[in-house]
Specification:
This protein has about 375 residues and is of the alpha/beta class. β4, α7 and β5 form a beta-alpha-beta unit. The longest helix is centred in the last third of the chain and has 19 residues.
Length: about 375
């Protein structure tokens, strides 16, 4: 029986139960379930938090990515560069729109896409780049933006795992929130995310007025005026109850990040002298909000360690066991095993431990003890 899960959503809810219950009941009493006041309030508060002109709420993070690409007017066959070490949704939407996903390897320390890998993959057909801010820290966005400007490419940030993270650009001296640096940012409010709903949800961010207007039309069946459809759109809405929950949690988001950072620091110290364990690296240009706390194991039986942890009531997970270029649905003659050595190494050696807002030192003592028992101190 798992006593210590990857996330503790029940514990998190209990801490803010009065606020959540009041907000949800208010939605029920007004019966404004779709595009009600709660959605508009959350949208405005998230805009203010991120420092971005436009937030377009939608039904989930996958829709956010799809709507973003639809708004850019890309054509079938256009190439979109992204990472092979990410959740499938990033490439899924590219393929669904009959665009061509172009996959590249990642940095061995941050696990994020690199400007160097992107530049090598650019062709005359390249139209967009999707950097994924994996596990809670930003990709190095300034050189990526410079590349995009040089080659006239769009940049769509996948910030589903890094909402609230800060990116500091040494050249400009500016600090910006993840998802607000490129042309468009996309996020997911899946319950286990740092800012998670009580169901599905997502949002799109932009400072571009024209793109914002286009995306608002796309998420609403392609209509700006009711029953007049100017574009092919989708039906993708954040419902009012989820918005009400998210608006309460948004007030606590920085506090949640601090709790995760504190937990990560505890883990880092506990594993610091173990040569078989590489703890997460944080780049100088970004903060890390630790959506996942992910180790890289060396000379360790990963499956054996996971079984040992489970025997001690401790959850663990592998994000991600199969790179995108080796997934059955995305097999492509352009790629073969061995083409992305860092990604393939990570897929075979990463392990994520529980990290969430309710972790205590007592729980972490149990977790770290079990890891060190198996791997050796």
């Amino acid at each position: 029986m798992i006593k210590f899960p990857m996330v503790d959503l029940v514990g998190q809810y209990k801490k803010i139960k009065p606020e959540i219950d009041e907000a949800v009941l208010q939605v029920m009493e007004t019966a404004s379930f779709i595009n009600g006041p709660a959605v508009k309030q959350f949208q405005e508060n998230l805009q203010n938090y991120l420092g971005v002109k436009h937030v377009i709420p939608c039904a989930n993070g996958t829709d956010a990515l799809q709507v973003a690409l639809m708004a850019l007017g890309l054509q079938p066959g256009d190439e979109v560069i992204t990472t092979s070490f990410t959740f499938i949704a990033t490439a899924e939407v590219i393929a669904l729109l009959r665009l061509t996903p172009v996959l590249v390897d990642v940095d061995p320390d941050t696990f994020n896409i690199t400007p160097e890998a992107i530049e090598k993959a650019i062709t005359q057909k390249t139209k967009a780049i999707i950097p994924v801010h994996l596990f809670g820290q930003c990709a190095d966005m300034h050189p990526i933006i410079q590349l995009a400007k040089k080659h006239n490419l769009h940049v769509v940030e996948d910030t589903a795992q890094a909402i609230g993270a800060d990116y500091s650009c040494s050249e400009s001296g500016k600090t910006m929130k993840a998802g607000t640096i490129g042309d468009i940012g996309c996020t997911s409010f899946f319950p286990s995310k740092n800012l998670g709903a009580f169901g599905d949800g997502g949002a799109i961010f932009t400072n571009n007025d024209e793109l914002a207007a286009q995306m608002r039309v796309v998420v609403n069946h392609g209509m700006a005026v009711r029953y007049y459809h100017d574009y092919v759109g989708v039906n993708s809405r954040l419902d009012s109850m989820q918005a009400a929950v998210l608006d309460i949690k948004l007030k606590h988001l920085d506090e949640y990040a601090e709790a995760r950072q504190k937990a990560a620091a505890y883990y880092n110290k506990a594993f610091a002298n173990n040569p078989k364990i590489k703890t997460p690296f944080t780049a100088t240009y970004t903060s890390h909000v630790f959506h996942q706390y992910t180790l890289v194991l060396s000379d360790v039986d990963r499956e054996g360690l996971m079984a040992h942890l489970a025997d001690n009531g401790i959850a663990s997970a592998v994000y991600y066991p199969v790179p995108l270029h080796m997934q059955k649905a995305y097999l492509d003659p352009r790629y073969k095993e061995g083409d992305f050595p860092v990604t393939e190494m990570l897929s075979k050696s990463v392990l994520s431990l529980p990290i969430h807002t309710e972790l205590t030192e007592e729980i972490q003592q149990v977790i770290t003890k079990a890891v060190l028992e198996f791997t050796g101190k």
